[in-house]
Write a structure and sequence with these properties.
Strand content: 25-35%
Largest sheet: 8 strands, parallel, barrel
Strand order of the largest sheet: 19-20-22-23-24-25-30-31
Domain Fibronectin type-III: 163-248
Shape: globular
Organism: Glycomyces endophyticus
GO molecular function: hydrolase activity
Domain GH18: 252-585
Helix content: 10-25%
Distance between the termini: 32 Å
Number of strands: 31
Family: Belongs to the glycosyl hydrolase 18 family. Chitinase class II subfamily.
Radius of gyration: 25 Å
Length: 585
């Protein structure tokens, strides 16, 4: 996890460029803030000042505090498939300039104005771009003047509309799906919804219901805006109709990891002593014999390390008793130390065979995939999450497809990636050869398994600041972080500068993870803050100023924690606060 945080920091601290942009094509109407207003920029505390300035009589001043970078952002209309130069003159301590999903640059502490410059290229369907400038936490004031976005203008009369924003599924039945999306930029006369082999569906507003579908079937749709000039770029969304046989997970599940193969400071806890309030118990961990063998092994903690550990016979009997109560017991593979790299088809086959053998031997309900560190990564040029080419990703997808097909509808599949491997893919994607090649590497796995996936509980802890759909950085430890990170999974998001949109998941597939106690991991969240996040996510209330892009999710699956052992060590704080809240939803 620490390696992921350091890698994310390295991506953020990209090297400074100093090329001078051409001035003739500046897309900004008030580049020097001479109007005296911050608008149309959106700033976290920014203001226009008369000194110090680089030219003219005005400049923008921002302040980076202990919990804020003083970020200012502006959305500009652009043309798809075009390259832009972004530059600004800045002064102050640690000033950053960039485009969301594109290039970024920074400078240290210039005593006088210095020019920053970077570039970005729009995706094939991209019609707007967000540019930003900010300082760094606790570094104080910074100033910005003479901002330039140099490139072909977008929008305006005589042009087709932009792409609809955040297409998502708002409702499903066994024979229909209802889609919603945000309005496209530019002049819009209507929208067209398409799927292969079916008639187009016309809509005048930002939503449509498509009928005549088969039960428990996945469909891919595109939505495009149109006007008198023609049709704009399409945005994609995937939906599955209702009517599927469920895996038997609780509607509002309390999910936890149980240290069964090792000991740590929280102490060993027998499976029989796990309270019935826990709906899913993930056995931590199954690990490979070598990182690339694919041969997963699982065993109980040695008695010398874990006094009071059960015998294998007692442990299997305890699993049977949990299942008789309606609980699910899964094998979790990986963890912080379990490096699993399926680099070959032989490793893939060994993974399928060995995991299947463990599930059969212990009579388990399914599999939790908790791959961290360097288990997943992209080879250079692997930039389409819909069609990955890197062996460790392709082989993992194939292995999980085989296991879910073998065990059928009752098999439970869950995943517990860090934010670095999922939400950070909105800003940086490792397959584009920009920055760390692991960023966003869970996205192709989640997308390929979205029909088989029962619950995705991203680890909202041990994380650096992550940019949300509001263009702001969110920090772990409070309701805001859980709201923003979970909303990304429901609404879907643009994948960095790839020009591709990652469709959101069904709300019943989504939970979020957090530490059970202060000793369990960075990002511990007070129970009241967790409940505020759940209020917002499930009903749209108590959001603290955040606007849900994916809408309310009353069917949100629940909460995950690391770990049941730590919760027991701290007197069951997590369970006793959150079980009653989930039951009341």
């Amino acid at each position: 996890m620490l390696a992921s945080l350091l890698a994310a920091a390295a991506v953020a601290l990209a090297g400074a460029l100093t090329a001078s942009p051409a001035q003739a094509a500046n897309l900004l109407t008030d580049p020097g803030f001479e109007s005296g207003s911050v608008s149309p920029w959106t700033c976290d505390g920014g203001q226009v000042v008369s000194s110090p300035v680089r030219s003219g009589t005005k400049a923008l001043k921002g302040t980076a505090g202990a919990a804020s970078t003083g970020r200012c952002a502006l959305t500009v209309s652009v043309q798809p498939g075009s390259t832009y130069t972004l530059s600004a003159w800045v002064r102050g301590s640690y000033v950053y300039l960039g485009a969301t999903g594109g290039g970024s640059t920074w400078t240290g502490s210039p005593a006088s104005y210095a020019q920053l410059s970077t570039s970005f290229t729009t995706g094939a369907a991209q019609t707007t771009a967000e540019v930003y400038v900010h300082g760094w936490y606790g570094q104080g004031d910074f100033w910005v003047d003479d901002v330039v976005v140099d490139g072909p203008p977008g929008g305006g009369e005589g042009q087709v509309p932009g792409a609809p924003g955040s297409p998502r599924v708002s409702q499903t039945t066994e024979t229909s799906v209802t889609l919603a999306w945000n309005a496209a930029s530019g002049q819009v006369d209507g929208y067209t919804v398409r799927r292969a082999g079916a008639a187009d569906v016309a809509a005048t507003g930002t939503g449509a219901t498509i009928s005549g579908l088969a039960a428990c079937t996945t469909y891919e749709f595109t939505v495009a805006a149109r006007n008198a000039e023609g049709e704009g770029p399409a945005a994609a969304v995937t939906a599955r109709t209702a009517g599927c046989t469920g895996s038997g997970l609780a509607d509002k599940a309390l999910i936890g990891y149980l240290h069964t193969s090792f000991a740590n400071g929280s102490g060993y806890l027998r499976l029989d002593d796990v309270p019935s309030e826990w709906d899913v118990v993930n056995l931590a961990f199954g690990e490979p014999t070598t990182p690339t063998s694919g041969d997963i092994r699982f065993s109980l903690c040695p008695a010398a390390e874990c006094p009071g550990v059960e015998t294998k016979t007692e442990f299997i009997a305890a699993i049977d008793r949990k299942q008789a109560e309606g609980k699910k017991v899964l094998l979790s593979i990986g963890g912080q130390n379990g490096l699993v790299q399926l680099t070959t088809t032989a490793a893939r086959d060994a993974f399928v065979n060995s995991v299947g053998a463990i599930i059969d031997e212990y009579g388990l309900d399914g599999l939790d995939v908790d791959l961290e560190g360097h288990s997943l990564y992209f080879n250079a040029g692997d930039s389409d999450f819909r069609n990955p080419t890197t062996p460790v990703i392709v082989n993992l997808i194939s292995a999980l497809k085989s296991l879910t097909a073998e065990y059928g509808d009752d098999f439970v599949l869950s995943m517990a990636p860090e934010t670095f491997f999922v939400q950070v893919g909105h800003q940086f994607y490792g397959g584009t050869s920009a920055g760390d090649n692991r960023t966003g590497s869970y996205l192709p796995v989640i997308h390929a398994l979205r029909d088989e996936l029962d619950v995705l509980h991203v680890q909202d802890y041990n994380s650096g600041p992550v940019m949300g759909l509001d263009g702001q950085y969110h920090n772990m430890g409070g309701a805001d972080f859980h709201i923003a990170m979970t909303d990304m999974l429901k609404a879907g998001f643009q994948v960095a500068n790839t020009g591709r949109f990652f469709p959101g998941l069904r709300e019943d597939q989504i939970a979020f993870g957090l530490p059970a106690a202060v000793s369990a991991g960075n990002g511990y969240t007070q129970p009241a803050q967790v409940h505020q996040a759940l209020d917002c996510l499930t009903s749209g209330a108590n959001c603290g100023g955040y606007t849900l892009r994916g809408g309310a999710s009353p069917g949100l699956r629940g909460l995950m924690t690391w770990s049941i052992n730590w919760d027991e060590y701290y007197g069951w704080e997590f369970m006793e606060h959150h079980r009653p809240y989930l039951d009341a939803l």
